[in-house]
């Protein structure tokens, strides 16, 4: 056997081993079923409004298997509409967004009027499998009666560094009895909520500059440690004509919580001089930004559960 033929045989063997290795790696990366991300949602369901919930999940690049339909466990009579969209594409996977909808008559008939809580879904996949999956903690409260308006919104904003603010003009004397938000134990120090009161609009509200405190000197008053809600003593007397600002900043999680979605609310509980209470709500958002390594880490953690 001449050397040339030996070289060709060796080359063929190397190519075969490479092909087998790539194929083995490809199949080792495949998901047997989509991986759902956790969602922590607190929202209000207004009159005549259908219930719509936005969820995120990871599926193979060829989108098989994918979602076909979903149900609420123990509530098979409730018809749930499903729509899915591609959110982002990676080497082996696709991050998808699913919107599940429930018509308002079903909400009233089957889910009740006090509180709608969803933590699991029964999911039917395109390969015929069915599985109950955890989706986090999703709470909707139907609006019973509108609050008396004691605030006038004057400015709001958010930033891609997971921060945001909203500023109000107080148009009558009030007492702020408390400021609270959900999932405190879960979020811990990762979320900081601030409250400040002044007689003039903040520079930030006037200029609407970037919220990032590392790049904007004017934003220092947005994240003053002395104005943390957890350090504030309530009740607080507020004069008519004052400006009230509530702001939030997510810090680095450095753990698996950074892969979860948050759409929660802070509640400013107030009381007028006539004794009427109101709940002014303020939305707090956190949407993770996934790189390739983050997607792989999420999948690795889900496989270990």
3D structure, described in words:
The chain has 305 residues and is of the alpha+beta class. It folds into 2 domains: 35-143, Sandwich (Immunoglobulin-like); 151-286, Immunoglobulin-like, CATH 2.60.40. The protein is 19% helix and 43% strand. It is built from 5 helices and 16 strands. The chain has helices at 3-29, 104-111, 184-187, 203-207, 292-304; strands at 35-36, 39-45, 51-60, 67-71, 81-89, 93-102, 116-125, 130-142, 151-159, 163-170, 174-181, 191-198, 236-238, 243-250, 261-272, 277-286. The strands form 3 sheets. Strands 2, 4, 7, 8, 11, 13, 15 and 16 form an 8-stranded mixed beta sheet that branches. Strands 1-3-6-5 form a 4-stranded antiparallel beta sheet. Strands 9-10-14-12 form a 4-stranded antiparallel beta sheet, with no helix packed on it. A hairpin with a 4-residue loop joins β7 (116-125) and β8. The radius of gyration is 25 Å and the shape is elongated. It starts with a helix and ends with a helix.
Features:
Immunoglobulin-like; 19% helix; four-stranded antiparallel beta sheet; alpha+beta; 305 residues; 5 helices
Structural class: alpha+beta
Strand content: 35-45%
How many strands, what sense, and barrel or not for the largest sheet? 8 strands, mixed
CATH class designation of the largest domain: Mainly Beta
